[in-house]
Amino acid sequence: MAYELFYWSPIQGRGEFVRLALEDAGADYRDVARIDGDGAVSALMEESSTPPFAPPFIRDEDVIVGQTAAALFYLGPRLGLAPDDERPRLWTHQVQLTIADLVDEAHDVHHPLGIGRYYEDQKDESARRAEEFRSERLPKFLGWMESVLERNPSGPEYLVGTTTTYADLSLFQIVAGLRYAFPERMTALEGAYPNVLALAQRVSERENIAAYLKSERRIAFNTMGIFRHYPELDGSR
Amino acid sequence: MAYELFYWSPIQGRGEFVRLALEDAGADYRDVARIDGDGAVSALMEESSTPPFAPPFIRDEDVIVGQTAAALFYLGPRLGLAPDDERPRLWTHQVQLTIADLVDEAHDVHHPLGIGRYYEDQKDESARRAEEFRSERLPKFLGWMESVLERNPSGPEYLVGTTTTYADLSLFQIVAGLRYAFPERMTALEGAYPNVLALAQRVSERENIAAYLKSERRIAFNTMGIFRHYPELDGSR
Questions:
Q1: B98 close to A (CB below 8 A)
Q2: CA–CA gap between residue A171 and residue A201 (Å, rounded)
Q3: What is the set of domains in chain A, with CATH numbers?
Q4: b/e burial code for range B125-156 (CB count within 10 A of at least 16 → b)
Q5: Is A125 in the B-facing interface, judged by CB distances under 8 Å?
Q6: Kind of pairing, strands A29-31 and A3-6?
Q7: Distance in angstroms (rounded) separating the CA atoms of residues B210 and B205
Q8: Measured between CB atoms, which of B69, B112, B153 is closest to A97?
Q9: From CA B189, how far away is CA A52, in angstroms rounded?
Q10: Would you call B27 an interface residue with chain A, using a CB distance cutoff of 8 Å?
Q11: Which of A43, A159, B21, B180 has the fewest CB atoms found within 10 Å of its own CB?
Q12: Given 3-state DSSP classes, what are the helix, strand and coil percentages for chain B, each rounded to the nearest 5?
């Protein structure tokens, strides 16, 4: 049976990290909300004995796995996108969890006061939070990813080991999202992270990823998702 | 060799979730920063080929595992605090990752504009974020934990299965932290989550946990940690 991905239909959001893994592997999968509607996502959360706190989650027969990084931890070996051994597999997961932390912070830039208010009702606070994100947090996260590549004993081509993992695909998504949301800042910063940028580029050229990015299955970045382009939150510094 | 826990010495913080597991299991462990100083934490991050992004992290011989939930995922089976089978083990991990999300939000209540500014420089914004946390987020997280207990096919005594896991210990820590930080709000809310409260109580009475909580190894909650008691952020609603 096909894997099922449950995530809200109008945005890439956190679901995109799972979608990229499924697409890269050429997996048979159903993007449930885009076929059956968002109600199907809520319904499964209501009835499961292992209820996900929030989408995205996946279903594989009778196994349901929520939390983006945990879903990828589950799918990784099954899709050929994770190392075989426990130790590098857990390291891949740690990288993914750190990427998830960056995603949370990228979201909080436009919602510092919480998700219950519109961005328009917290613009001033967002501008203040964005300063720190651009000047401190973004370089810290990108610098960490660069150091992970530099310190990979097998060389800087992959985050872990000598083959593509779901973490590499997620790194591509991070770079794409940050470039969409903070084009000025990323232009100013990118030169400092050559290995990160090169890996993102290589991922974008992978056959299945390149085909996916050109397809209608790839939702465009927009100002409903996690990475949002608000020019007033961007800047070269 | 003993496990080593690396975390900043003056606070419970995220390190406490790992410490509770080590303490409950009666494991031989070194609390590195409290013995060798915080510099030992930074030093290992600088030199590792699998560098943690931030503490806490653990070292087990030559394995280093960062990200709180991943460290517990690694330690759980070794300490007898995780299920044997893959599926419930991954479910335990999902519960822990959701607890980690709550911890992040509990932190952001007093730092909505980012970690670079003191609380005193973002008090007004904190008060606004705290409203949503108290009225929406806290009930949502506690309600989810209550439903996890209610839906456990083995009964509501444990979050997963029929034995104590590290997630149960973490639930205790969440309840303790929330009661410290938001005493008025927790008093108003607690009646709605009887299974959560009963589990927290049972954990506090476990022999090794009870001894630990009375020991000097248990750092007191304080206003440098994640759960902070600022009366102006609390309230019955």
A1: yes
A2: 10
A3: 3-79 (3.40.30.10), 86-206 (1.20.1050.10)
A4: bbbbbbbbbbeebbbebbebbbbbbeebeeeb
A5: yes
A6: parallel
A7: 5
A8: B69
A9: 22
A10: no
A11: A43
A12: 60, 5, 35
B217 touches chain A (CB under 8 A): no
**Which of chain B's residues have a Cβ under 8 Å away from the Cβ of A171?**
none
User: Minimal CA–CA distance to A25: which of A47, A51, A5?
Assistant: A5
By CA distance, what is B140's nearest residue in A?
Answer: A53
| Interface contact B112-A116, CB threshold 8 A | no
Kindly list the distances between the CA atom of residue A11 and the CA atoms of A18, A34, A113, B115, B145, in Å, as whole numbers in the listed order.
13, 11, 21, 28, 27
**Interface membership of A85 toward B (CB under 8 Å):** no
CA distance A216 to chain B (A): 31
Each residue's pLDDT expressed in tens, for chain B with a length of 237 residues? 799 999 998 899 999 999 999 999 999 999 999 999 999 999 988 889 999 999 999 999 999 999 999 999 999 999 999 999 999 999 999 999 999 999 999 999 999 999 999 999 999 999 999 999 999 999 999 999 999 999 999 999 999 999 999 999 999 999 999 999 999 999 999 999 999 999 999 999 999 999 999 999 999 999 999 999 999 999 999
Cis peptide before B194 (omega within 30 of 0): no
A49 part of contact set with chain B, CB < 8 Å: yes
Cβ(A166)–Cβ(A17) under 8 Å? yes
Pick from A49, A101, A112: CB nearest B125: A112
Four-residue CA torsion sign, A5, A11, A12, A13: negative
Taking CB atoms and an 8 Å limit, are B114 and A93 in contact across chains? no
**Single-letter amino acid code for the residue at B207:** E
Specify whether the CB–CB gap between A167 and A174 falls below 8 A: no
